[in-house]
What we know:
With 547 residues, the chain is an alpha+beta fold. 20% of the residues lie in helices and 28% in strands. The protein folds into three domains: 20-139, no CATH class; 143-279, Sandwich (Immunoglobulin-like), CATH 2.60.40; 295-526, Rossmann fold (3-Layer(aba) Sandwich), CATH 3.40.50.410.
Amino acid sequence: MMASIGEFDPLNTRVPATKIEVTVSCRHLLDVDTFSKSDPVVVLYLQGVGSKEWREVSELPPPCLLCASSPPSIYWNRHLPPCPPAMRHRTVPSRDQLPHLSLASCISAGWEMVELILRLSGIPGKKCGVIILSAEELSNCRDIATMQLCANKLDKKDFFGKSDPFLVFYRSNEDGTFTICHKTEVVKNTLNPVWQAFTIPVRALCNGDYDRTVKVDVYDWDRDGSHDFIGEFTTSYRELSRGQNQFNVYEVLNPKKKGRKKKYVNSGTVTLLSFKVESEYTFVDFIRGGTQLNFTVAIDFTASNGSPSQPSSLHYMSPYQMNAYGMALKAVGEVIQDYDSDKLFPAYGFGAKLPPNGNVSHAFPLSGDSVNPNCVGIEGVLQAYFESLRTVTLYGPTNFAPVINQVANCAAEITDGSQYFVLLMITDGVISDMLQTKEAVVNAASLPMSIIIVGVGPAEFDAMEELDGDEVRVSFKGREAERDIVQFVPFRDYIDRTGNQVLSMARLAKDVLAEIPDQILSFMKTRGIEPRPGLSCSPLPDLPGHI
């Protein structure tokens, strides 16, 4: 569906940062027709996150690299495992024996292209052929164009003034239709406007086809939304890329005026003032170049959570199901751990009295070792969390600043882009040290660091919303945070009504991790850091059925 001019909002229109093209082909298929060759068809199934049921689909959704809801497993007609070894041949007798390696593992291992060749089985004693799966990031996703235009002697459309012109860019589609891809700002009361320079991904402008028609409409803005059409012209990415010259001065033509007036020449001209193209690096580029995500966990051990021995407690250790803290930790951690090569995660608690002296701590290691706070894998963090519940006394207050500053100190030591720190804080209540926390967030915003806050329980989380700088950037004593690095979500919004914990965790992980790639890119861009050359492919574990 093509949006109308009034509906299009470039500030809220998101173009995918990374696109993966997946192709499938077959070779030497068994001929099963008597009087002709076979008529092969490939059927794609995706496994649901919550139900784990297989659903037939005709196309792949774009994968979000930090999103648990993107398809973890892809199978073609039940013979294709989701593993990335290039050019390895294998025979897969059944789905139960299919190995699993996530897309994150493939990228972190340095694979630029995934190609899998598998022997098909199904008819005993017969060679059924091979199926080949290739997956590759599209190179045209990373170019962005910055351009500036002006106009001269546009038609006067306003009765008591001149015109309030703006431009609307359309990308042409294969079927001859056009889709809005950019709208400039309105320049008030002028027939000779100069619009601000703007940036647009090349894929949005022409979908990688440099000669594809780009149509530009010129409108006079009206307050009631009934914008007056001034005229139009067409160009292409290739023409625009030549920059400012005599060929990039376009006549603005109004077909209706041209048909009515014999002496009609044009409705003004639009001139390209500047044009440049840069390569926009993606999250994939940095991960492939060796950037590691250092994942740290901080868990609220304040008394407001309730006694862990009581079923009403948010820390209650039920033998039948995981509590909200465990679910939040597992949901986020299991996705992000694929981007951390050593799988060692520092884990802290805050707001508890520690044995043997009963001193209150707001950044105590769950491992019990102040020298080494690391836990092995997410399962190790969960185990340390449960052990801590048995040894510490829940107390208070709810202070965030100490653990934020602790992680920030680590981030401050490595600012070359090789490391990026993600702190997951899980809490049930109101922040007690709000001013200190704001100061800590403002300081951390200049470092390679992001903060995820998951609120559990029924409390109001107004303070958390204030830290999440989507609307208003966090500030302290007049100093504004350089970047938005905090993402807050209340866990109750993601609890599945049917009680499906897997689905609840998947929904949570999807939202809390959605901003991390952009936050990483924003830090790298402000520091002028480029991704390192791709790592040489790391060896992957051998899998059953290797030939």
